[in-house]
Amino acid sequence: MEQDEKNSDFQPKKLARQLDFTGAYRGLANVALPECQDAQKQLESESQTQSHSQLESRRHPEPQIKSPEHSQLQLQPQPQPQPQQPRSPLQLQQQPLLPQLQGRPQLGPMVNRSHPMYKLSPPTLQAAKQESPTSRPRANIEAKDGTPKKKKQCNCKSSQCLKLYCECFSAGIYCDNCNCISCQNNVENEAARQEAVVATLERNPFAFRPKIACSPRRSRGSMDDSAVVGKHSKGCHCKKSGCLKKYCECFQASILCSENCKCVSCKNFEGSEERSALFHEDHNTTIYIQQAANAAISGAIGSSGYGIPLASKKRKYGKLFSGIAAKDQSIHTSPQCQQENNLKASVASSLLSSKFKYRSSLAGILQLQDIKDLCSLFVVLSDKATKTLAEKSDKLDRQKEGENVEISIDLSTQESRDGKKGHISQNAISDDRLSWNQVDRDGTSDSGSDGTNIDDGRPMSPRTLALMCDEPDTIFMAAGSPDGVAGHGQNTSQKSSNGHVFTRLYAEQERLVLTGIRDFLNRLITCGSIQETMPLPLAKNDMGSQQRPAENGKVKSGSETASHKEVYDNGIIKSPVTQLSPEAIAVTCCNKDLSLKVGLPDGNGEKIEPITDRES
DNA sequence: GAGTTTGAAACT
DNA sequence: CAGTTTCAAACTC
């Protein structure tokens, strides 16, 4: 086998009828995959010091070249200047595609693909080209699973397939079953083809070089799984696509735009939400995300790109959201897709962070913990109310001592006694309402009054209790009715007067709770208003994490203000005080204020006594 | 499938 | 080197 391969490799040279793409194709060893980086460097250096034959002999032993398909390529009948045989589907499957290869760990093809390029005969050139992951991706179509399906056929009309416009030509392969007109990119027109190649190389010696060059690993600290290794050698110049469509060569190659790019309104940078949305798309969210991408591209929602603002201004938004329902199924079949499958992160998180979602002006202020704490506050307030009334009832109870309890009980006495009982049971009710996890906190012994199904005595689930939030009032209020509190067990005998007692207890609790809520909401509204009126960079804290392609080695930054920004984990912007507007400072303090005003735990987890006596 | 949009390549 | 034109792929309808 090895011998055969060698032979097959040497034969083309003997033909000596093809252009020596040494200059051009040597670069193919520069293929942009991390796995091959070392090999490439080695080959590159070797190629400058060793003869081609040396390289050949050295590379051949490499085990990676042993794939059956590849062997077949190498073993193509090498005869002779015969008309180019149409490639078999198997051969066509050798079409290189960066995304696919990136998805595959195998090293073989990448290393191997470089070697035939130093002296290429058409068939070998084809094979070599096919193996190159850096040849233009457009020349390929692949199945959803990343398996190359077939070579894409060009449709050239005017270029005769002898210009780089032609994907086949630019990929260094003959047209084969293409839909082109006046095609000269074939064996029959080899002379013309060679001329064209020469002309192309004269214009640009690197014309046939891979456009995607290796780059160091993804940037440090990247949280973006979809960051892709590689860099477009020339960079793209996209203006309208946001570099999120296949018009963009970078996007098409599944790489990030780089400092080489001169694109405008680029969204193809690490940390780009639009890009993440695209790459993390799920089957169920394809359309939505594509819409998001379209919207992002059109700038409808605001560009997080780092493009030239001027150009952005020039953009026409006449088609804003029009045609937004486009179903870009290509996203499923695109090369990127397979790669992204490996790079997927949470769609949800991506979407949550997406700009396309409504962002409350309270975002970053009102935290989940605040809500929890608020609930806790209600419990505290309920306790407070309970205690208050308990003291009251104790007094009354003492007054009652020695007295005989008559059937016609004094209303106030009964009220106080029942009130005391009521405290306990109602306290439990309050707890249950406020926290499903605290059902048994202090009212378990009195479950008949709060955790029991009124009808059959079965315990009610916390969820049911929660759903009954408003029901008990009715129940207790209806205590006067004969069956109003049938579930209250031993208290049934007192049911005729319970309503009044609970009403007072409720009134007290409600007063305290509502006061707390009011204060809390007031603070919330204030903070929200402040944040809303703040400058965007200050108000939005999610921009700080976005990293943009570097320009001249420097990381591009969308806004100057975002560059030195840090963000608290609660979403509040942390910046040097001197850079903060009073509003920003106010917002920074907002959470603390909220806690203070409503008695939420402070940052140290310490409960702050609620300020409930401050009335407006 | 026709028409439009887009951006690379080619050209001036 | 910048601006314009040409071209074909990508995209939309």
SSE layout and pairings?
Blueprint: H1 2-15, H2 22-25, H3 37-49, H4 52-59, H5 68-74, H6 89-92, H7 98-103, H8 108-112, H9 122-131, E1 140-142, E2 148-151, H10 167-171, H11 190-203, E3 212-213, E4 231-232, H12 249-252, H13 273-279, H14 286-298, H15 309-314, H16 330-333, H17 335-343, H18 347-352, H19 368-400, H20 411-434, H21 447-450, H22 462-467, H23 471-477, H24 495-533, H25 536-539, E5 548-551, E6 554-556, E7 566-567, E8 573-574, H26 582-598
Antiparallel strand pairs: 1-2, 3-4, 5-6, 7-8
Helix pairs in contact: 13-14, 19-20, 19-24, 20-24, 24-26
This protein binds a DNA duplex (12 and 13 nucleotides) through residues 138, 152, 154-159, 163-167, 170, 203-204, 207, 234, 236-241, 245-249, 252, 323, 326, 328, 330.
